[in-house]
Amino acid sequence: MGSPLMSAIFGIQFAGSVPAPTFGGVLGQLADFFRLWWGLVYWNTRKSWFQLRRGRSPCPCQSPSDSGRAYETHCEACTLWAKPARFRRVCPLLVETKEGLRCSADTAQVRPFWGRALGYYGSAALGVYLAGVLAVFVFLRTIGYPVSILHVGLPPLWHRVGQARSWFFHDRATKAFAEGKTAEGLLYLANAYEFDPQNYTAGISLAKNFQAGQPARSDHVFEKLMRDHPDKRSATAQDWFRALLARGSFEKIVPLARGELLTSAAHGGVWLRALLFATRQTGNDAPLRDVLEQSSPLTLPWRPVIETELLLRAGRTAEARAAIERPWAEDAPAFTVFYRVQALLELREPLRAVDLLEQHRGRLDGEARATLLLDIYAQLGSRHLQQHVERILAPRLNAPTAKTLCAHLIRHPNPQIFQQLWQKLTRETLPLDSDTAGAWFSLLCAAGAVGDRDRLHDLTTRLKHASNTPFVALSLVEAFFRGETAERRITTFLPILPLPLDVTYALIERYAPPVAATPATAKRA
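^ that's the sequence the OP posted. Answer follows.
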């Protein structure tokens, strides 16, 4: 007996040993492998045609020289295969007999096996699919996408892959913004929204971040969000309005505010105020008259306000005063009280404004009431105003109070009141965080409005240090308030400042006057 070593050295094959694979054998197996996939279609097609012709065509696979009886007839279809027995994977009628491979069916019973063909092709497709799923899953997980293999493998869950990719890029965008990489953050946000247009968080963030540098794209994303997310329409419209207001896009605010006023009962006062403000800026009363012509029940509570506003704009002050002072509906929205008091102040009637405000003492929230009282006392005289400011500053300072005072100081600059606010702020150390950032930026604008250059510079420096970015644009804001820039419209800088809405209104009223002043706005100026 020889040893395995001798077999390895001399290539000697002993009885009972496993034959070593040869190059020809491998080629034969490979050839039969491809013949299998071709034969599953070819021979089943020919057998189907044979069955359809019912004896009018010769059998495609049996030897015509044989009897055609079962177990006696050779199979011609397998003769070209390297190992004919492998043909049984195509046709199970081929069986092993004592005489060799024979067909187990009479000629008339030769039939196709499409189920077997579908099984092979289906299994192959499933294998390729599973291999592809595994490869894609490993690839996505390697990148960092938080996907499950089920999300990749099950077609009904494929949308989850897009969602996972979207959140992946959203997280990358958040990190980029935190590191001061604005351009990179915008690119990641755009990818996040592209991969999943239903990702509202990514979409609204993209729209807000586009507003300063790419306003057209910002508006496009806002429009798409309004259309694709009707359940969030109200919140989207308000964010879009703030973006448009900061940019001074009053022509676009008008249709947005009008549409929301006519289609949604929520925040009607906000939208009417926006419509009044935007039409004053553009000098166009037509949208207000159009609202009056609508028969929608949503506009009914606002008709007295619009009618009064049109009287003021036409210079019919006596009629406007009479309209303001007549009894209005007891269930009229709170904004109607706010508007009437403001209108009396525009007519230089502060005492009547006080009386009206006291008549409806419980109708307005604290901020609205404080705003109106500050404006009233500003007209009545410095002594009354000083006393009211002291009452406002008596409790511990908070962000809403600081915001209200800053908006007032922008409209009515008063260095003494600003010093009181600054000293209060210094003593109580209002924190600078995401919740109070609006108040701090309001304070910056108030310092510029009252002409306190030292505080303006201090606040600019403090806000820059608190930011993760150099915030170079903040130096331009400081230069604007110092009068050191050629640009004199504040809307150039407002998109980069996270300001409360009332402060934005105040800044535009002072630094971006209407294109054509109406009688009412001319009196107020």
